[in-house]
Amino acid sequence: MDKKNIDKRIIELIQQDENISYSKISQIVGIPEKDIEEKIKNFSDTREKILIVDDEMSTLMPLKRSLESENYAVVEAYDGHEAIKKANEEIPDLIILDLMLPGMDGIEVCQHLKTDTQTEKIPIIMLTAKDNINDKVEGLQIGAHDYVTKPFVLKELKARIKSVMLRSGNI
Length: 171
What we know:
Blueprint: H1 3-16, H2 22-29, H3 33-43, E1 49-53, H4 57-69, E2 73-77, H5 80-90, E3 94-97, H6 106-115, E4 124-128, H7 133-141, E5 146-149, H8 154-168
Parallel strand pairs: 1-2, 1-3, 3-4, 4-5
Helix pairs in contact: 2-3, 5-6
């Protein structure tokens, strides 16, 4: 059962019996009780969720704090493999993706996400120091919704985030 079906099943069980325990839901759905508790907690968080993928803490942490101050729920990943895992677990409303990552670069991550039915519709903004026109064109051709080069102006990036989310129907 995929994440969305598990979430739907949990909601159905709670609707059938609002006093159902995490333990009982865990037995029925077949995932650990602590995961059930975390999922239920996340159901009540209605903020848009953004996954930031960057291996540079000097970019990731200030951007995370700034977006959280704008009332976004922010999840982070530090390499390409972790990005794919978090995208599938969290199903964010938007992904901000660096191109130069250890293990699997941002182009490979984007290609993978765009061919996975669970993540193919998640909008992606490439945020990278690669400012060559060929890199920009490649990023957009493989499915990125926008391409922003570092160093970036935070106010502009926030405007682009809102614009991409509006265009994709995630706001």
